[in-house]
């Protein structure tokens, strides 16, 4: 039962661990035992079977990047969120702590956001509010989150082990000393932006010389310090055509990275009005689905796991989980959004309580559906901004309401129906 350096588990270890997890859940929640509970628990667990299981350096196991590691307290809280709580609760939040950033990424979905960053006291209060709402996976980002390093420390000090924390970074302002401090405070891992297989390609994409080296160094430090590591990469059609993505996967393997997360180009932020993205969207998505199957195959266990949003959000899987079904987003200025790629707001935590805003958003996302709103509604959001001469994102709720009257979220997600959730 050998584990490779990046933590990928053999098919034997994976099978054993899935059976162990299933049995552990049944025993732990035996007071809820019923044929229905066992059936729903099995469906939920094996919904992640198509992913590669990763064993982290601390001895815990990841079924998926955005699912807290087993057998942590955060993992079991996630189980409770979905199988015991009524109504079910969200697991993941992407939380931006600052828009400040020295990079100039052409796809940035925050570049048009306006308003001052959330002050520290409100930031910490909101962290408590979102954990009370059920969140077990906290993905902190910027801008450059390391520009608010003291606040990162304060956030980690304010939460317990019922939440798993990963931090997004470009690699800028990262040092070994800072990583050691955050590890001691409980940070589980880092998602490092890497958008090319060479210095020239990545540095050009982000607009900063030396960015490639900073990202690579951060990934090396993660492995050295025994911290979880993922690469975030936007998969443009060009990277497919010229083989850049394949070479990027080889780099990730050599760096012993745990995950490479594929993000297909989104019409959001600076790309909101880029209708050309829609033309190649189908081809890119088809490639991502094939890559997900190829690299997560147990015969390629030396490679990192390859989580891909288009795979998890496929109509036959979880569908669109935005709006607090499984995930949501809070921008650096306090706007509560269904998703970081959906540039609409349901309110600002500087003006209203998180609980009020979250309840409002959930009214529009009571039942998970199949359509990816970041794709189907990008044109409508862009048109609404033009109609009212809006020059910033996300669209304030007073305008968002107009959009909500018209949109169609598609068919209900079949998997959740099987789980007996959100019906």
Outline: globular
Query: Quaternary state, please?
Result: single chain
Which series of helices and strands comes N to C? HHEEHEHEHEHEHHEHHEHHEEHHHHH
Class based on secondary structure composition and strand pairing: alpha/beta
Widest β-sheet, arrangement of strands: 8-7-6-5-4-3-9-10
Overall average residue pLDDT = 93
Task: Report the portion of residues in β strands.
Answer: 5-15%
Tell me the radius of gyration.
20 Å
- For the termini, the CA-CA separation is 41 Å
How does the major sheet shape up? 8 strands, mixed
Q: What percent of residues adopt helix (DSSP H or I)? A: 40-55%
Put simply, the count of helices is: 17
Q: How many extended strands?
A: 10
Spans of at least 5 consecutive residues with low confidence: none
Question: What's this, in brief?
Answer:
This protein is of the alpha/beta class. The protein has helices at 11-28, 35-46, 73-83, 120-132, 149-158, 176-184, 199-206, 211-225, 237-241, 244-254, 276-295, 309-312, 354-364, 373-376, 378-387, 397-404, 414-419; strands at residues 54-55, 61-62, 92-96, 137-141, 164-169, 187-193, 228-234, 259-263, 327-330, 336-337.
Defining key terms:
423 residues; two-stranded antiparallel sheet; 41% helix; 11% strand; single chain; alpha/beta
Structure explained in plain terms:
- The chain has helices at residues 11-28, 35-46, 73-83, 120-132, 149-158, 176-184, 199-206, 211-225, 237-241, 244-254, 276-295, 309-312, 354-364, 373-376, 378-387, 397-404, 414-419, and strands at residues 54-55, 61-62, 92-96, 137-141, 164-169, 187-193, 228-234, 259-263, 327-330, 336-337.
- The protein is α/β, with parallel strands linked by helices.
- Strands 8-7-6-5-4-3-9-10 form an eight-stranded mixed sheet, covered by helices on one side.
- Helix 1 packs antiparallel against helix 2.
- The termini are far apart.
- The model has no long low-confidence stretch (mean pLDDT 93).
